[in-house]
Each structure stands twice: as C-alpha cells, then as structure tokens.
Amino acid sequence: MIEIKDLHFKYHSQKEEVLNGINLNIKKGEFVSIIGPSGCGKSTLCLTLNGIIPKTITGEFSGDVFIDGISTREKEVSEFSKKVGMILQNPESQLFAMTVEEELAFGPENLAVPRDEIEERISWALSIVNMENKRDEFPGNLSGGQKQRIAIAASLTMMPEVLVLDEPTSQLDPVGKREVFRVLRDLHKNEKMTIVLVEHKTEPIAELSDRVVVMDKGKVVLEGTPRHVFEKVPILRELGIMVPDISYLTYLLKEGGYVKDIALTIEEGRRLFI
Ligand SMILES: Nc1ncnc2c1ncn2[C@@H]1O[C@H](COP(=O)(O)OP(=O)(O)OP(=O)(O)O)[C@@H](O)[C@H]1O
Ligand SMILES: [Mg+2]
Prior knowledge:
Organism: Candidatus Methanofastidiosum methylothiophilum
Bound molecules: adenosine-5'-triphosphate, magnesium ion
Structural class: alpha/beta
Function: Probably part of an ABC transporter complex. Responsible for energy coupling to the transport system.
Family: Belongs to the ABC transporter superfamily.
CATH topology: Rossmann fold
GO molecular function, one term: ATP hydrolysis activity
Domain ABC transporter: 2-242
Strand content: 15-25%
Helix content: 25-40%
Oligomer: single chain
Order of helices and strands: EEEHHEEHEHHHEHEHEEHHHH
C-alpha cells in the first residue's frame, strides 16, 4: 500500500536532514505504529505520506514514496488526500462546520459525490466512531475525544485507503484516549483499514499494532512485531522510549531470573505468575 524508498528530506531552514534514508513498506490492512524521540522526524515522515512534502512544504527531497504504486512526486496532494486520510494532534484545528453532519459532508461534497451516497457514508462513518446521536450537534460542544472521533469520521467519509494519525490522543484525557484507540481497533479489525499511527504511549501500541517502527535521527533503527520491539528494553530506554509498564517490570524480573518471558499486556503478565 505504501512503499518508501531511500527517502531523504531536509527543510530549507534546517542544516541537517530530518529524514535520513528511510526504507519502509506498509501492507494493505496493516496497523503500523511509529515511535521515537521528539524531533526524530515522525511528523515529517507523516507529511510525506500524502504528498504535502514535497508538494506543499518544499525542501531538499530525494528518494520516493509510492502510495498504491503511484509516486507522490507524480500527482497533486488532492489526489493523495483521497487515498490517505490525515488526523493531527489537535482536533479543534480540524473542525470548522456548524454541525457534525456538515463536517462529515464537506469532503465528499467537494468530490461531487451524489447526495444519497454522501448520506450513506455519513451514517457509516458515524456508526464506526459510535456517534450516531451527535449528527446535529455543534462540534464545538463536544468533548476532546468526541471531537477527535468526528475528525476521524470526517476523514472516513472520503473513503481513504490509509489513515495516518499523528499523536491523535496527546491532547485528550484518559477517557478520550480510550475512545479513540477503540475506534482505531475497530477500523483495523472490522474495516481492514491500513493504519499508520504515531504515538508516545506504548501500551495501546503493544495491544493494537501489527508492527512497530522505531525512528531515531531520521532513520528507522528497529522494527518488528510489538514483541520483537518491546523486548529490547535497554535500547528503547536509551532512546528515551518508555516501554509498557508491564514489559519493563517483567523485563527486570526476567533479568533477575524470576520469570521466563517479557509480557506485553497485563493479561500476559498475569499468566507469567500462575
Ligand atoms: N516546517 C518545518 N520547518 C523547518 N523545520 C521543521 C519543520 N517541521 C519540523 N522541523 C524540524 O524537523 C525536525 C523533526 O521534526 P518532526 O516534527 O518531524 O519530529 P517528531 O519526531 O514529530 O517530534 P515530536 O515527537 O516532538 O512530535 C525537528 O528538528 C524540527 O524542528
Ligand atoms: Mg511530531
């Protein structure tokens, strides 16, 4: 679905490359999470996935990003924004309409999708984010988690093939975080959506992802299943990445010879002690 080949990027205003030779393939239906220290280039990488870099934000760009076989150099951002939905940190900045319904209709209306189909898409998107009862609500009246779910639903009405989410829960309270992660899980499991998630909290990543990609200084330094990655506790701590608490605890116990495995989830941890 996404193929990134030897990707280098430098913002004009910066001295050093922010992306320093990224190679990464993401399969259709895969849930890939990206982690790494602040400033390592995660958000910049996201912006290359719908062509904003290099089309709108220019700089020194080399290598290629292919979305469904088409290079982002070849077509306009509007072409890729149909395929790749992008959700950012701050839900406020992504909502502008007077009602939830208008918000969700905006994208497909711009693509001249017939009214009946827009209706269907809106109902489908609202059911996925579990907000059917907020259709006529003013988005400004919603909670942070609800706003972010509406931003996701608005993106879904464009029928994207990939959703890229850059720290979508960092401004949400614990309930809001949980609501958004549940939506991502359903989108992955039930709708087979391809998901790229940048996220600092590693617990949900361990639970939801098929694959975790660790970046440092514009490079991919480690990747694999959540187990493969989160077992490398010392490497991750060196990078300032906090593994799930249960993984750290069981890592220490394993080092001490008390348990034989590192757990990824509380449930796995519990089983180690039975
Ligand atoms: N629009 C821009 N113009 C110039 N430099 C930028 C721009 N955006 C980001 N940078 C710089 O590029 C580097 C990587 O930034 P980026 O936002 O991609 O990192 P990140 O991994 O997303 O960090 P964080 O975890 O803090 O969100 C940083 O040094 C940053 O200052
Ligand atoms: Mg960022």
